[in-house]
Specification:
This protein is of the alpha+beta class and 218 residues long. The protein contains ten helices and six strands. Helices cover 55% and strands 13% of the residues.
Length: 218
């Protein structure tokens, strides 16, 4: 059975690597990436039984045993377990910029990405480059097949299925072309079933962010 990237890889790492535009060697939709990463962390927690959906809100159950201190999964669980009930959308939006930095640093430590920092007219600029572009390419191919392919959803590897659901919910560039979300809507709904409240919350969060940007730009 395949895993998204390598044995032990997390959904958050895979989601980050999936966000690269390999032609331009840069992250796409970086402003929304934090939403995707937090959704991926919550999806992992939900699937392993550390979170449960209760009336449209996550409820903390058992503390994740294998979440390293400071990892996004550990941070998200601690936030939810120590706070009053809030919607999935609230937790997806919380500290989303910090989520990018946390996962970025983990991937840099694993030497899967390179972080280049310099200044342009005294303004600090950061560029993130994949060290192993084939990993991102392989992820994009597998997620694309999950959405468009004919393999029964129930027979798919779980992490690829969930990653595809979250990528589709966020409308990640390089995953879905123009109009494909509507064309494959039924398939995407099937992929999303194990993490439906999270996928729905992510989709609505991204849609609201883009609408706000369109309104502001108009």
């Amino acid at each position: 059975m395949e895993t998204p990237v390598k044995q032990g890889e997390t959904l958050t790492h895979s989601a980050f690597l999936l966000a690269f535009d390999l032609r331009k060697e840069r992250l796409t939709n970086r402003g929304e990436l934090g939403y995707v990463l937090r959704a991926a962390a919550m999806a992992e927690l939900l699937l392993e039984g550390s979170l449960a959906d209760e009336s449209g809100k996550p409820r903390a159950l058992a503390k994740p045993a294998d979440a390293g201190p400071g990892s996004l999964r550990a941070v998200v669980w601690e936030q939810i377990s120590g706070s009053p009930p809030r919607s999935w959308r609230r937790w997806i939006r919380k500290d989303y910029a910090k989520a990018v930095r946390v996962v970025r640093d983990e991937l840099a430590a694993d030497r899967l990405i390179r972080v280049e920092r310099h200044r342009v007219l005294f303004i600090p600029v950061e560029r993130i480059v994949p060290r192993k572009a084939y990993l991102s390419r392989r992820l994009a191919e597998r997620v694309g097949r999950a959405i468009r392919g004919g393999q029964p959803v129930g027979r798919m590897e779980r992490d690829v299925r969930v990653l595809a659901a979250l990528a589709a919910a966020a409308g990640m560039k390089g995953v879905l072309g123009w109009g494909e979300a509507r064309r494959y809507r039924n398939r995407i709904e099937q992929l999303s079933a194990p993490v439906e409240p999270i996928a729905t919350a992510l989709r609505k969060t991204v849609e609201a962010t883009r609408q706000a940007g369109a309104d502001g730009g108009g």
